[in-house]
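Feature request, filed as a ticket because there's no other form

It would be nice if the structure record came with a short human-readable summary line next to the tokens. Right now we just get the raw output. Example of a typical job, pasted below so the devs can see what we mean:
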Amino acid sequence: MTKLTSRMPCVLVTGFAPFGGESLNPSWQAVSKLDEHLIAKHRVIALELPCEFHTSLEVLYKAIEQHHPVLVLCIGQAGGRSEISIERIAINIDDARIKDNAGQQPIDHPVVKNAPAAYFAKLPIKRMLLALQQSEIPAAISNTAGTYVCNHVMYGLLHHINEHEPHIKAGFVHIPYLPSQAVHHNGAPSMSEETVLSALKVMINEAIVTKQDLKVAAGTTH
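Raw output as currently delivered:
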């Protein structure tokens, strides 16, 4: 067995604290179980982010500065979605339908003032998608990360990397409810924690080893 050391290249994977009245967040439930795992000869470091505008990015930036990851993959809950959603783009807007865990509810505020309207993920999203499909895990490319804390974190992450550390691969993935959550949301789809964990391992591996993404159709008509 390979011994993990601080000298190994590392991957930073984040999940969120519960929000919106939920007692847990499937993103952190899964991500926490990857802490100190080895994937493609890279040490995985798991980090829980607060579900709060601004503070979430402060915690994330501090961890990037501390660990110097080669890859940052942020995971969030998207209740109502039925598959692993690999986010293509983050937009420079906060428009919160509900308050965050600190009671903040920004409406039509930029994530970063005087910054670009959007950033694309710095991930091989098509290869990640294909790898998930080959593993028989439901997945899709998503063209909206919403306008809540998930998009806030994705945009803030990509802006930070663009400005300071352009060598880092980075992006965001949304996952469905766990079955224990879905039973409280009539008709909502869910995905088991085991499947989510498998998906995360597949995506992290693909993001690490891929040098160039595929050019295959994975768009939507609406």
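Something like this underneath would help us a lot:
The two ends are 48 Å apart (CA to CA).
The first strand starts at residue 10 and ends at 16.
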